[in-house]
Specification:
The structure is a homodimer.
Chain A (H helix, E strand, L loop, with lengths): L1 H12 L2 E2 H9 L10 H13 L3 E6 L5 E5 L1 H12 L10 H7 L6 H30 L5 H29 L3
Antiparallel strand pairs in A: 1-3, 2-3
Helix pairs in contact in A: 1-4, 2-3, 6-7
The first copy, chain A, binds a DNA duplex through helix 2 and helix 3.
DNA sequence: GAGGCCATGTAACATGTTACATGATTGT
DNA sequence: ACAATCATGTAACATGTTACATGGCCTC
């Protein structure tokens, strides 16, 4: 149900239409919580039905502008305060690791090397981004920096793990 | 489509019924690729229809025993060799981080502290498991150790990140 | 007047969850 | 005979993806 909270969170800043929100999903939220058009428009209707947002204005081209309600803010607040499960419960990578004995050592090492390469590339990309952000000011970038750091540390972890894992493979 | 590959992988070892496979999902694959009964039975029927498995025997209580076919092995092999995307594309944690400015510094620090605590607990649990596994022998545990190490490093990363992030919050 | 952007939606499909339905066989 | 376990499935719902449908408005 987090698409719902993502929409509510975006609507706190200012009222917006589904179209506006879609653009925000495609830009700022693209790497954190991607969403499709159908999802956004559908969820906005459900949100309005549930009283968490209101249609505050109608504009040209059937434009509907949504505003978050008090009930919506409350829902968002309790979501933010609630603890979050750690987890991608399903990992295709680890599933492959589970079946490693079904491939040759060469195949396995190649797979892990590929993974290491990708993680290293991601790490470099994010490190460059962090360097670029360091010169910028403003409280708006604090969140971004914290999220970025997560991605950076994760890529680093995975890169190192893949290297270590390849060394464990015998033969 | 990885449920399909998980089933094929399990069937390489030996033929099995849906019931047998469910038990394997609940034990060995529980943390890597959980699956429900409905999914397993449904996918097995689809797999048989696609010719990737055969019903090799029928037993008491309508038991159907499935065996992987040559085509099934081929499908499994190419899946194992193919590169895997890095990714949980959606992260509820990072979504909350994105909206951190909507909560008070106290709430934010509490949320991050909770996360740190959970990651630390997971880390300890896995470290104990690794220690227990160290005394065991056999090539069957190599995979398990590699997967375990991933979880361990991830928990460590998250624990440290949460501590660092909490320190970034002002006020 | 034509092309591009604004704007909202529906339909079909894939995957996964939860709950329910049904019954056979085995061991005590 | 009764309970536990074996065994397979269906139905309803939630979430997400892809493709398609429809049309208004603005600028050149």
């Amino acid at each position: 149900m987090s698409l719902r909270h993502a929409l509510l969170g975006l609507l706190v800043d200012r009222p917006a239409s589904g179209y506006d929100l879609m653009k925000l999903f495609d830009t700022s939220l693209a790497h954190v919580w991607p969403a499709t058009q159908s999802q956004v428009y559908g969820e906005l209707n459900r949100l309005a039905e549930a009283g968490l947002v209101d249609v505050s204005a109608e504009g040209p081209r059937r434009r509907k502008e949504y505003t978050i309600t008090g009930q919506g803010r409350q829902e968002l607040g309790s979501w933010l305060a609630a603890p979050t499960q750690r987890q991608p419960r399903r990992s295709e990578l680890l599933l492959k690791v589970f079946f490693l004995h079904l491939a040759t050592p060469e195949q396995t090492r190649a797979m892990l090397a590929e993974r290491e390469k990708r993680a290293a590339a991601d790490h470099e990309r994010l490190a460059a981004l962090r360097a670029a952000l360091e010169s910028e000011e403003g409280p708006l970038t604090v969140n971004g920096r914290i999220a970025l750091e997560y991605g950076l540390r994760w890529a680093e972890m995975e890169r190192d793990w893949a290297g270590w894992a390849a060394a464990q493979i015998e033969g």
